Amino acid sequence: MANELEAISGKAGPLLVKAGRFVGNAATLVGNASTLTLDVTGNVHIAGSLAATGDIVAASDRALKYNTEVIERALDRLNYVQGYTFQRIDMPRDVRFAGLIAQEVQLAVPEAAHALQNNTLGIAYGGVCALLVQAVKELSDRVAVLEAKAAAVEGV
Length: 156
Prior knowledge:
Layout: H1 2-9, E1 15-18, E2 21-31, E3 36-40, H2 74-78, E4 84-86, E5 97-99, H3 102-108, E6 113-115, E7 121-123, H4 125-154
């Protein structure tokens, strides 16, 4: 593998993928033709889709977090957000997507909206998932109250 990398980059060892070429030493490619691992320190920007046959995992261990707060009024916050289907100005006209609008997410859960390099906003969908989990729990609590009231009325 090192010989193949040397042939591509002119260097052995750690590599940085930049402008379609391998340069520097901020990333490492390890493996063979059937299994390849790319370890990168820093941000990775992809112009286009990312497809994975396995999971995409974000570090989320409790040991990595502090100052945690439960999302309050999740149902109220969720009212700021709509689900949409849409076309993008930077994609072919016949391609449609489904998703959210970052500005709406920013109103509901600011921690999930992030500024991108091109002066637009992006969404950390894990943050949206956290909002949805709390909203479902709030709904569950409301259903439990209504079920208790219904049971009391039936018992009369």
